[in-house]
Amino acid sequence: MITKDDAARLKQELEKTQRELKEELKSLAGVPEMGSDVDAFDTETDEAEEFSNKIGVEQTFKERLEDVRRALEKIEKAVYGKCEKCSMEISSEVLNLVPESRYCKHCKM
Question: Where along the sequence do coiled-coil regions lie (predicted)?
Fold first, then answer.
């Protein structure tokens, strides 16, 4: 069972994570896109790989940011800590490790 103090502490953690993820996404926006003025095949290959990596990292950050937003919304609605699949309590052990967790240990498997 999550106490009010635990929820308040985890809310602060989630808000901090939210800020950090937004900053990371902002910094990724500064990474150059693939160019069309490439002279060498090796350079073009490097740019393509960097672009591909950027998209993967950016998507991961966006997904985690959405999970954090949902968790903060659940705290506001006083339904934080309930598994989205089975509606059982998510253990404090899981929430302390991953505050934005949507599922209990059993349902994650």
Answer: 4-31
User: In this structure, which amino acid lies at residue 79?
Assistant: V
Q: In this structure, what token pair is assigned to residue 87?
A: 């509606």
The pTM is what? 0.78
Other CB atoms within 10 Å distance of the CB of residue 47:
15
Say which amino acid occupies 6.
D
Using CA atoms, how far apart are residues 8 and 65, in angstroms rounded to an integer?
Answer: 19
Domain of 71?
4-80
Q: What is d(CA 101, CA 68) in angstroms, rounded to the nearest whole number?
A: 8
Q: Determine the length of the chain.
A: 109
Q: How many domains does the chain have?
A: 1
pLDDT of residue 55: 84
Q: Within 10 A of 86 (CB to CB), how many other CB atoms are there?
A: 12
